[in-house]
Design brief:
Radius of gyration: 18 Å
Number of domains: 1
Largest sheet: none
Distance between the termini: 48 Å
Protein name: Phosphatase PAP2 family protein
Pfam family, one: PAP2
Number of helices: 7
Strand content: under 5%
Keywords: Membrane, Transmembrane, Transmembrane helix
Shape: elongated
Order of helices and strands: HHHHHHH
CATH architecture: Orthogonal Bundle
Organism: Limosilactobacillus panis
Helix content: over 70%
């Protein structure tokens, strides 16, 4: 059986189930936005916490914070270039599906930049307080699932985004 046909069936069944429970569509969309906001606030909070810890000396502050800005920033740029070159279509481009998370962007689906960023931010937060980092990693997994359920990414897109985020985030421990 054709796996793409199975994906269409899977997504149609899933979206029909959500259509029978319209409040869940709103909850999915809200969850997507809230987790993205939490991630950005957590990243800013982690930088502030590390900055506060190293506030006594400017060189110590720069040494502590710079890798947490440079490594994720370079990773984001490299990921963006790679996904622009790949220009993989999104599920709603290949199939006659109505995504539960409204999106009009074409291409640039693989890897998921949302999941990449959330993974890296989780690992930055892990350096400040591992329970916070672990909580954010759980939210990252839920965000990945929401992006697939929402119809804006295939599972391969979010898995690739998470793996790229883990590679980029692991570089933080070298510095």
């Amino acid at each position: 059986m054709d796996t793409k046909y199975n994906y269409f069936e899977f997504y149609t069944d899933l979206s029909n189930w959500f259509s029978r429970h319209p409040r869940l569509i709103g909850a999915l969309r809200l969850f997507n936005r809230v987790v993205v906001a939490i991630m950005y606030l957590a990243y800013f909070g982690a930088l502030v916490a590390i900055g506060w810890e190293h506030r006594a000396s400017l060189p110590a502050l720069a040494k502590a914070v710079a890798p947490l800005v440079i490594i994720p920033g370079l990773g984001f740029v490299v990921l963006t270039i790679a996904r622009n070159r790949l220009n993989a279509p999104r599920p709603y481009e290949e199939w006659m599906i109505d995504p539960l998370i409204p999106r009009e962007k074409q291409g640039d689906s693989l890897p998921s930049r949302h999941v990449f960023s959330a993974t890296v931010i989780s690992l930055v937060a892990w350096q400040v307080a591992w329970p916070v980092g672990l909580t954010l990693l759980v939210l990252t997994v839920l965000l990945a699932v929401a992006r697939v359920i929402g119809g804006v990414h295939y599972p391969r897109d979010v898995i690739a985004g998470a793996l790229c985020g883990l590679v980029c985030g692991s570089l933080l421990w070298l510095f």
